[in-house]
Write a structure and sequence with these properties.
It contains eight helices and no strands. By secondary structure, it is mainly α. The radius of gyration is 16 Å and the shape is globular. The model has no long low-confidence stretch (mean pLDDT about 90).
Length: about 190
């Protein structure tokens, strides 16, 4: 497998882990275990263990539940600023693990940077949504996030370049949306 493809897969995986680490690990492990996707590259094979899948999915349910309560959602995502980027960098490095050591480091750096970007965008969106008085938007955003993660995890192994380009376009659109929401909130308040 060529190194560019591995780097793209690692970056896409870090993208999803920056949004929701537990859902990424749980969905990736479950999809591998159910043979929806082929064998995972690098050191990611351990993700298909039922212990890892169960733990990740239980934590994903806890995170989804926390995301439905406005103040708790912001606090949860703020706390996970310390968890998601390093874990995403580790997942990216594990994806490229059997390559050249410099390439593994490159995958970790790019993956960590991508995770910081997606996590920061999600955090900005979460803060903006928590300002709104209605409770439905948190559930809609969290459900859409899980759909996005599932889509990326299931397609990146077959169509890595297209998947990453689509994910990056969506990220740019989300960044623009967050900026517009914050500008609107600043004008209102």
């Amino acid at each position: 497998m060529n190194q560019l493809r591995i780097l793209v897969e690692a970056t896409a995986l870090a993208y999803t882990a920056g949004l929701n680490l537990y859902a990424t690990v749980g969905i990736l492990g479950l999809a591998t275990r159910l043979e929806w996707i082929g064998p995972l590259p690098g050191s990611l094979a351990g993700l298909s263990s039922w212990w890892v899948i169960t733990t990740a999915l239980v934590l994903a349910v806890v995170e989804f539940t926390a995301s439905l309560i406005p103040a708790v959602a912001s606090a949860w995502d703020t706390l996970h600023s310390l968890i998601r980027p390093p874990a995403a960098a580790a997942l990216a490095a594990a994806t490229a693990w059997h390559g050249d050591p410099a390439f593994v480091l490159l995958a970790a750096l790019v993956g960590g940077g991508m995770a910081v970007t997606t996590h920061t965008t999600k955090l900005g969106l979460r803060y903006a949504i928590d300002v709104s008085p209605e409770p439905i938007s948190n559930g809609v955003i969290s459900t859409a996030e899980l759909g996005l993660i599932t889509g990326i995890v299931l397609t990146v192994w077959r169509h890595p370049y297209v998947t990453l380009v689509c994910a990056l376009v969506l990220l740019v659109l989300l960044i623009v949306l967050v900026r517009l929401i914050w500008r609107t909130l600043c004008q209102v308040f």
